[in-house]
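Justification of computing resources. Each target in the renewal requires a structure prediction run like the one illustrated here; the chain below, 202 residues long, is used simply to show the kind of job we budget for.
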Amino acid sequence: MSERNEKNEKVQEAELDEELEIEEEEGISLTSFIFEWANAFMVALIVVVLLLTFVFRQVTVSGTSMTDTLSDGDRLIISSFMYKPSYGDIVVVSHGQNYSDPIIKRVIATEGQSLSINYKTGDVSVDGVILDEDYIKGQTRELRNPIEIPDKIPEGYVFVMGDNREGSLDSRSTEIGLIPVENIIGKAEIRIFPFNHIGSVY
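Resulting structure tokens:
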């Protein structure tokens, strides 16, 4: 009987040791999982912060100068990394010549291009070609304190206008004037609010 009891005790001890080993392995596995998850979360967070700092930013539209393309209160994601302005881009500008607040407008002409505006017909021409501006609201008209448009847009500058041509303060006025490229914060890419209008702004 004593030998049988010893065998039973050894079997029970072996089973207990095995259970303890399984519990230890499960504990190590859970700790490892939590550590890996936390590590992946931190890496993802750092990547997002870097992207939002150096590549993408979020801005909120203020005013109606870009109606009907954009509305007051729209939230946009803009990109800035290695950005070079092109015709038709919607850009956020830090300030105008005599205007201290940020503005959002559309690039109409870039450096080296010639620009003319026929205020009687509302036609805008770049390099002698009348633009087909299906995005505008109203007619392009002359603003108070009009700018004297140069023969060619100088190097490092762009000419911008709002899509709401009858309700936009832009490069047509000396208050905004020609925009130095270095004053462009970034190009609008995606609308993220309101939710029923999420998507590209083009």
